[in-house]
Amino acid sequence: MNILHKGCFFLLCLIYTIKISGQDNLLQNGYDSIRYDSLRIILEVMYDKDQNIRKLIYDSMETNPNENSKYVTQMISIDRDNLSVLIPILDTYGWIPQSEIGVKAGSALFYVIQHSNIELMNKYFPQLDSLSKIGEADRGQAAFMQDRLLMWKGFKQIYGTQATTSLRTDKSLVIWPIMEPDKVDSLRRSIGFELSVSENAKRLGAIYNPAEELPKK
């Protein structure tokens, strides 16, 4: 049993102990008695695993392409393990305010769900979005998830955060079509993005055409 599963088991045991001791009220009306210190440790480990494997994949694309597929397989396994631990936490506590667990642990919530599937993003995005509007979650991360949901549903994105290889026959990386390209950069600045869409596209090595249209169905 790895540290994530041990930590999750501890938390679930804690919840059960509180319930059978007749203290259900400790789990209601806020987070005052939740063991945020334990949650923070678990989530920060998740964050490191999620990001470290993706850095290995990115680095290997240039330095050692033959290792890339091995790292992708590892990433799939890590994502699955992270998700198996995170879902019981989210279903118990909801999307936890970052003032309670810290920015890094809060980012772990985002990355693990962002790297999951459309059903889970649909389920948890409203919680992330609500907290982002009161400063308890990262607004940029909420924008990323909203854009990804829109892209996966076949709609234009709002903030220009998403790029795909599905728009060109040569599989070039292209910024997914944007709803209001003339307003997108001001929208990005309003939530804290430093780069414009075109600047970010350059950073990604992606094509950006403000007039890009949705693919024909």
Structural class from helices and strands?
Answer: mainly alpha
Strand order of the largest sheet: 1-2
Kindly report the average pLDDT value: 88
Please report the distance between the alpha carbons of the first and last residues: 46 Å
Number of helices: 9
Percent strand: under 5%
Rg is 19 Å
Low-confidence stretches: 16-24, 26-33
How would you spell out the order of helices and strands?
HHHHHHHEEHH
Describe the structure.
The structure is a single chain. By secondary structure, the chain is an all-alpha fold. It folds into two domains: 3-137, no CATH class; 156-217, no CATH class. It has helices at residues 3-20, 36-63, 68-93, 98-101, 103-114, 118-132, 139-152, 184-190, 197-204, and strands at 163-164, 174-175. It is globular and about 50 Å long. It starts with a helix and ends in a 13-residue tail after the last helix. Residues 16-24 and 26-33 have low confidence and may be disordered.
Labels describing this entry:
61% helix; mainly alpha; two-stranded antiparallel sheet; 217 residues; 2 strands; 9 helices
Protein topology:
Elements: H1 3-20, H2 36-63, H3 68-93, H4 98-101, H5 103-114, H6 118-132, H7 139-152, E1 163-164, E2 174-175, H8 184-190, H9 197-204
Antiparallel strand pairs: 1-2
Short summary of the structure?
The chain folds into two domains: 3-137, no CATH class; 156-217, no CATH class. The chain is built from nine helices and two strands, in the order H-H-H-H-H-H-H-E-E-H-H. The chain has helices at residues 3-20, 36-63, 68-93, 98-101, 103-114, 118-132, 139-152, 184-190, 197-204; strands at residues 163-164, 174-175.
